[in-house]
Specification:
227 residues; mainly alpha; two-stranded antiparallel ribbon; globular
């Protein structure tokens, strides 16, 4: 709810003139953390990273199950909270510093602690505290779309999902959501049957799905973005 000062200015007909000063005042208030957590939680769905189901046996049973130093990757509570904090802190930094909105998509920094930096294979960061870290020049980690929280909430429990991720970009980044899928569309996994016992690549399964005229118009938009 608006506080006493905002209500007073509105009642006096002075609020419009005072908007820049009031925005600055509100951004300096500790209550702005509610905006940061709820906006990123709803817009980017990062609040879901702490509960999104991940089948550890299926995911960690794949080849890329270890960090570069040989230690095992663990997608546990502290890791999930660090991922959520990374996205929240990046948004908070851009908001409070009045930085370019394009940094949400591409930036030369992110917020990490030792464990998350190790998980990303980035230069060493010490301690559990999240802090701003400058990324190497060749890093692809800048921007929210490559952050762990966004990647996790746009995945399936056992594997990545280009369809979910492409839909996410269309809806939440580009603001151009596709129409709902037609009824009785077969699941993506049904495409496996056409490969005669061979385990197809995900891109091959998507190609079969796009061959269906009912599906192709939307998947031609979603799949390239998701991949």
């Amino acid at each position: 709810m608006p506080d006493a000062e905002l209500l007073r200015l509105a009642a006096a007909g002075e609020l419009r003139r005072e908007v820049p000063a009031q925005v600055k005042r509100m951004l300096a208030d500790p209550k702005v953390q509610g905006l940061v957590k709820n906006f990123t939680g709803q817009w980017l769905q990062v609040r879901d990273v702490e509960s999104v189901p991940i089948n550890a046996r299926a995911v960690l049973g794949q080849t890329a199950t270890r960090n570069r130093d040989g230690s095992r990757i663990e997608f546990d509570g502290p890791m999930r909270r660090a991922m959520r904090s990374e996205t929240e802190l990046c948004f908070d930094h851009i908001l409070k510093q009045d930085r370019s909105v394009l940094e949400l998509l591409d930036s030369d920094y992110t917020f990490l602690n030792a464990r998350l930096a190790k998980h990303y294979g980035l230069p060493e960061v010490t301690g559990d505290e999240m802090r701003l870290v400058r990324l190497p020049a060749n890093s692809t980690r800048g921007g929210v779309l490559t952050q762990g929280a966004v990647l996790a909430v746009t995945s399936n429990p056992t594997r990545t999902s280009p369809v979910k991720r492409g839909l996410f970009v269309l809806e939440n980044i580009l603001g151009t959501p596709p129409p709902p899928p037609p009824p009785d569309v077969p699941a993506l996994e049904e495409a496996v049957k056409g490969f005669k016992g061979r385990e197809p690549k995900l891109s091959e399964m998507l190609a079969v799905h796009r061959a269906n005229k009912l599906c192709s118009s939307c998947h031609e938009r979603m799949d390239p973005l998701g991949l």
